[in-house]
Write a structure and sequence with these properties.
Layout: H1 7-43, H2 48-77, H3 89-123, H4 125-128, H5 134-150, H6 153-157, E1 159-165, E2 172-178, H7 182-228, H8 230-243, H9 254-286, H10 297-316, H11 318-325, H12 327-336, H13 339-343
Helix pairs in contact: 1-2, 1-10, 1-12, 2-3, 2-5, 3-5, 3-7, 3-9, 7-8, 7-9, 9-10, 9-11, 11-12
């Protein structure tokens, strides 16, 4: 018996997701992130922000490639001709499933780190101007990737593939096998990485987004005042030198304003994604029947498809933000795609 979502509706959603929407978004996201990687490499890694953007692009493209592999494995598993394959495709996709979250969570951590660095540099530039260097950023990027990997080692060691003979087909295949502590580690993953961490990152990204937006408004008002009255600028500069007040976002340059706009938009969109992830994860914890194989399994499957599409979209649309707000990025992309000649 199906609840809320019928089996027919689930079949339609599965076809639309697996055969149309997911492959299309995956291809676009992979191409967009390859473009991001090439572009940021050409820009150079002399700036900590570019280093972070490059790391995010690498993490995103690996996540989407793994997601595409899982989607392809599921499609193959549902095909009649796959019965003779020596490996169970659903088992293979199940093994890869947990590895993709290493890169999903790494991207989330990197975007949160980007929000914190920009927020600090904009709010307290004198204190943090020389703190977030390229070298330190590279170290933090490595720490983020390795931490997300090694914290999941117990989970990875609790399952694997083994040759098992099927009682129905009488064929021996590589199939998913788990140890007795797999469920425990999987629950830790669900509660910690999928529920608690998104809520924490949501709070941080929302706070940073608010502070950066406030700084942009203040900078915009300040720039208007500066263009209207030069004497006011001189008076304010004299007052600052006398009171030793730190220079704030009111003196942001046009280039800095564009950078803060790009980061603010990325962080705001990240907040929306984290909100959805948090609600989805909390629903799984609060409603025990909202889980695969249980009462609301069809609804869970449809919501999972929607969340996956949102995650894939989030990895791809950053290139649009970079193109709009980053002059160097835009010029290099135009050169790579030969858009300058087409526009002229």
């Amino acid at each position: 018996m199906s609840y809320i979502v019928s089996d027919e509706a689930l079949a339609t959603a599965m076809f639309t997701y697996g055969k149309i929407l997911s492959p299309a978004l995956q291809v676009l996201a992979i191409l967009a992130n390859i473009l991001n990687i090439v572009t940021f490499c050409k820009i150079g890694l002399k700036d900590s922000v570019n280093v972070t953007f490059l790391a995010i692009a690498i993490s995103d493209v690996v996540y989407v490639v793994m997601d595409a592999f899982i989607s392809a494995s599921v499609v193959i598993a549902l095909s009649p001709w796959q019965r003779e394959l020596p490996v169970g495709m659903l088992s293979l996709s199940g093994c890869v499933h947990f590895y993709q979250f290493v890169f999903l969570d790494s991207s989330t951590c990197l975007e949160t780190y980007l929000a914190i660095t920009r927020c600090c540099c904009v709010a307290l530039p004198l204190k943090f101007k020389n703190m977030f260097t390229v070298t330190r950023t590279l170290i933090i990027v490595i720490i983020i990737f390795t931490s997300n990997l090694f914290l999941r080692v117990p989970l990875f060691l609790s399952y694997g593939l083994a040759w098992l003979k099927s009682s129905t087909t009488n064929l021996t295949k590589l199939s998913f096998v788990s140890q007795k502590d797999f469920q425990t580690f999987n629950m830790v993953e669900q509660v910690g990485a999928r529920t608690v961490c998104p809520v924490i990152f949501l709070f941080i990204s929302t706070l940073c987004s608010f502070l950066l937006t406030k700084s942009l408004v203040a900078a915009s008002l300040r720039r208007k005042l500066m263009t209207q009255c030069d004497s006011l600028v001189n008076n304010n500069a004299t007052e600052k030198s006398q009171t030793n007040e730190p220079i704030t976002t009111r003196t942001l340059s046009a280039k800095e304003v564009q950078l803060v706009k790009a980061v603010t938009l990325v962080i705001s969109l990240l907040g929306n994604v984290l909100l959805v992830l948090s609600v989805f994860s909390l629903a799984q914890v609060a409603v025990t029947e909202f889980y695969p194989g249980k009462k609301y399994k069809n609804l869970h499957a449809v919501v999972t498809y929607a969340v996956n599409l949102l995650l894939i979209s989030h990895t791809g649309y950053k290139s649009i933000i970079y193109y709009k707000f980053n002059t160097k990025y835009r010029s290099i992309v135009n050169a790579l795609l030969r858009l300058d000649s087409k526009l002229h």
